[in-house]
Amino acid sequence: MKCYLCKNPVSKFLFKNNYQLLKCNSCNLIFYDFNRDYAKFLEKQYSKGYFTGESSLKSYTDYGRDKKKYFLNMTWYINEIVKYKKDGKYLDVGCAYGYAMEVADHHGFDVFGIDPSDYAVAQAKKIFPKKAWVTYLSDMKFSDGSFDVISLFDVFEHLQDPRKDLAKLKKVLKNDGLLVIATGDTGSSWAKFSGRRWTFYNPPQHIFYFDRKNMTRLLNESGFEVITITTTGKWLSLSYIFHLAETVGENKLAKLLSSFVASIPLSRLALYLKLHDNMVVFAKKR
Predict the structure, then answer these.
(1) What are the pLDDT digits (tens) for 37-53?
(2) Residue 85: CB partners within 8 Å, gap ≥ 6?
(3) Among 118, 202, 243, 266, which is least packed, fewest CB within 10 Å?
(4) Arithmetic mean of pLDDT over the chain
(5) Do residues 264 and 90 lie in contact, with contact meaning Cβ atoms separated by under 8 Å?
(6) Considering the domain boundaries, does residue 19 fall inside one?
(7) Which of 13, 157, 183, 138 is closest to 1 using CA atoms?
(8) Is 7 inside any structural domain?
(9) What are the phi and psi torsion angles at 84 (to 5°)?
(10) Total domain count for the chain?
(11) Distance, CA of 257 to CA of 272 (rounded, Å)
């Protein structure tokens, strides 16, 4: 195979969850060959179990019960966004239960959300009945230049064809609009230290893995200009940390303790982790 981004040769990187990740010898992009029906994959992967703790999907423990933690994370994102855009029409791609929409709405944005998950959007519709839709990014139906802000929080790594999707996002973003992408940074010290146990290395749901340099290259080639790239930490529940360590981090001790931790009152304890492996990219149309 050739690299998705620069078309140069790739090498085998690591084998995880029965998937072979490849790494470009030139630009360091990491990905695997997604060679199946993407729509059917999304329907199966992002079903109810993805948000309620089905271990085979290597997903969340309980996305609804952990709402307060995710609200804290979304609040950080929106507080950063208002440094560039104070108001306007806001689209959250991969909106899930609509937590980012809620925070943005509280800040005065006119919010909208899309997600491929029927189950997740049903939860978002409880608060935003006419502003959240089940659709794929490539199939969304918005007029050109509709939005002042578009966000993809922990979504970009799930995309089958990010170059194609960026073209779609560029069309529906206003000329002075803001694009915000939060994803893992393969060039971070924590990613390099963790190796195969890094929790972002999670195929099949995570297809592409970027660092700051190749992310900037992709955005530039797609007609965007990077304003800044920063890092953020995340608020996570104790039970979710053990869940991640067990299912993605392949930690044997976590596997022994995760069920016990999930059963104790402290399982919902909120912990803030900032490992500098989560990059947040702010970009505008070039």
Answers:
(1) 999 999 999 999 999 98
(2) 148, 149, 177, 178
(3) 266
(4) 95
(5) no
(6) no
(7) 13
(8) no
(9) -110, -35
(10) 1
(11) 20
